[in-house]
Write a structure and sequence with these properties.
The chain is of the alpha/beta class. It is built from 14 helices and 21 strands.
Length: 489
């Protein structure tokens, strides 16, 4: 095995000694990996998880913890929100395209309530409380929130708005350290351990091992620089995360994210994608990205966002991830927030989960004309935008972009602007194409025998748009499918 540094598949006949054996071998111990492990073990398989870091968790444990679920979950019902799988499907088809996998979205929406109940049965707690204010996530331990712009234009006219951002209950959470994502992972990891799932840490997968029929029968990993061969009697599940931290892949597939990865961990280097590619795996939506916008939603909703020409370009009360995508992809990362003094002071009285986004404004002025000059915008550009906005806002309308009446108020008196150019970062959404059983598909359209995948190394629900909770949602949902399918393989 002297050529172990290549990613090309290794023939099983060349493996002199198997260091570990299991029925199902899972690469990655984040949300997709742990759910695959639980279901494979419950299906009677001996399960071994290979994790490149020193413990379970992955990006999921550092996330805010949103799981995008709906269709009438017990939490939605308890809080008085009506939803159906068909309504959820209508929204997702509109919000996550173009080019979404319609079969996968239909499958996910119809299995959403069962998936919620499954998570609860594994010990994941959800508090029956709703957070209805603008924000990236609930500032407390509320269990439900709008997390995809469902209640904002244009979607509120396409499907009946329903909050679907389900957040595990946790006090004193600190996203990025120990947040709602940790409270999602902890009971799942405990469940896996109780089922006898084994784990080997500090294992970096390097190659897939195939038999003479090109069926995947194992993994070659490296631990502290030494090769380790692991035999998979039934199947290998890839749950290795995105490619947000692989420089060449970002440059080749998603160049707008060059130098601005976020909401991922550095172990997201695309290794699972590349190993499957070496077997002829089909990819999908590799240019798709979620984009965070580093602004406080309470401020954004009360002001107007303008581009480098002083023009509004998106409704300010929508899901901030949509604002981020529109800013980076459509506006060349040029954005300014304009707000008047009364609205600014009102926003500062509200609660937020992102207080670090509440910085002093870049420019202040007595009039829009003075502010326009201070910002260096062309004469009359911002003035015309504000005049149009104020004209309609006075009547409680926004015919240009559809901002909701509750946030419409003419900008009056002293005004300020925030320079928000470059205030974006993101992670990748594309990856391996899989079927509804999480089998990795060859470019021919046929499944690659013995190989399964779930989570951000796959192209899941999102083909372009995004909703907070889609990653943990489809990662856990199709992680379960991968575990079941691999165990029965």
């Amino acid at each position: 095995m002297s050529d172990a540094t290549t990613i090309r598949p290794l023939r099983a006949s060349r493996v002199e000694n198997w260091d570990h054996r299991a029925d199902v071998v899972i690469a990655g111990y984040g949300i997709a990996g742990v759910c695959a492990a639980i279901e494979a073990a419950r299906a009677g398989a001996d399960v071994l998880v290979l994790e490149r870091t020193g413990g379970w968790g992955g990006a999921a444990a550092l996330a805010g913890g949103f799981i995008y679920l709906g269709g009438g979950t017990p939490l939605q019902q308890a809080l008085g929100f009506e939803d159906t799988p068909e309504n959820m499907e209508t929204f997702l088809l509109a919000a996550l395209g173009p080019g979404v996998d319609k079969a996968k979205i239909a499958d996910y929406t119809r299995g959403s309530v069962e998936h919620f109940n499954w998570l609860v049965s594994c010990g994941v707690p959800f508090r029956e409380a709703f957070w209805g204010e603008p924000g990236w996530e609930p500032p407390h331990d509320e269990g439900l929130m709008y997390s995809g712009g469902e209640n904002a234009a244009p979607f509120n006219a396409i499907a009946k708005p329903a909050p679907r951002g389900h957040v595990p209950q946790m006090a004193d959470k600190r996203t990025g350290e120990k947040g709602g994502g940790w409270m999602l992972m902890k009971p799942l990891a405990d469940t896996a351990e109780a089922l006898g799932v084994r784990a080997e840490y500090d294992m970096r997968i390097a190659r897939l091992i195939v038999d003479d029929d090109d069926r995947v029968v194992g993994v070659l990993a490296r631990r502290y620089g030494k090769p380790v061969a692991i035999r998979a009697e039934r199947g290998v599940v890839l749950a290795t995360g995105s490619f947000a931290y692989h420089k060449e892949m970002i440059e080749g597939y998603a160049p707008r994210l060059i130098g601005r990865p976020a909401a991922a961990i550095e172990e997201h280097d695309g290794i699972g994608i590349r190993l499957a590619q070496a077997l002829g795996a089909q990819l999908a939506h590799m240019d798709a990205t979620e984009v965070a916008f580093f602004g406080d939603p309470q401020l954004l909703a009360r002001g107007i966002l303008v581009n480098g020409r002083g023009q509004r370009y998106i409704q300010e009360d929508t899901y901030p991830g949509r604002i981020g995508q529109a800013t980076l992809i459509q506006q060349d990362n040029q954005a300014y927030l304009v707000i008047d003094e009364a609205s600014y002071e009102e926003a500062l009285t509200t609660e937020t989960s992102t207080p670090f986004f509440r910085q002093p404004p870049t420019w202040v002025a007595e009039t829009i004309a003075e502010l326009e000059a201070e910002m260096g915008l062309p004469g009359q550009a911002l003035q015309a935008t504000v005049e149009c906005y104020n004209l309609h806002a006075a009547n409680g309308a926004d015919p240009l972009l559809g901002k909701k009446p509750e946030w419409l108020r003419p900008l009056r008196g002293s005004v300020a602007a925030f320079d928000m150019r470059g205030f974006t970062a993101g992670f990748t959404l594309g990856g391996l194409r899989t079927d509804l059983d999480s089998r990795v598909l060859h470019v021919s359209g046929e499944p690659i025998q013995g190989l399964f995948a779930a989570g951000r190394c796959t192209s899941g629900l999102c083909a372009g748009g995004y909703v907070s909770g889609a990653s943990l949602g489809d990662g856990s949902f199709y992680g379960r499918r991968a575990g079941i399918a691999a165990a029965k393989n």
